[in-house]
Fold:
Amino acid sequence: MDYTYADIAKMIDHSLLNPTLDAAALEAGCRLAVEYDVASVCILPYYLKRCAEILAGSTVVPSTTIGFPHGGHATAVKLAEARQALADGGRELDMVVNISKVLSRDWNYVRADIAPIVEAAHAAGAKVKVIFENCYLADEHKIHLCEICGELRADWVKTSTGYGTGGATLDDLKLMRRHAPAHVQVKAAGGVRDLDTLLAVRAIGVTRVGASRTREILDECKRRLGL
Structure:
């Protein structure tokens, strides 16, 4: 094996974004993330403050979404969401681009929509993942977004919300890794449901995956490693 348990666990953002999750499920999800020592919990924004309290003292990072899931919020609203998330203890923010403006090729707007979120997060010592929602985009859109995110020094480019018509594909991840600068990491979301898929995207250079089947993936990892 060319990986340790920590290598795999610290790739996973445990996703708690389904709008039907109740408070008990969100609490349990945060505790599962601590038990398995994953990278982060990406949780419904209203629960982020409580999530940060549960994760305190662990190495698991509290994170949430901005402009989720469709990206059509006014930039001022996204910025207000980001500021609230940072105040609530968020250390990583997963923001959705304005998909309509991407498809309109209004790149000045797209850049101006992403920039203040990155600036606010970085000023607070937090990081930003920019979600493209690739299922709606052509390769030219994805490439241009990678270039913009590189210019703005976003921390990750991310394939999907998990709530579009499709999720991460190997072809998209290869494209994003090829066109994003080295200082921008790549996150796969939507469709990483088992260890073999996670290992496949890791081989491409993906450093994070969004997963709801965290327990199953990491139990299989432990089994293979004999832990």
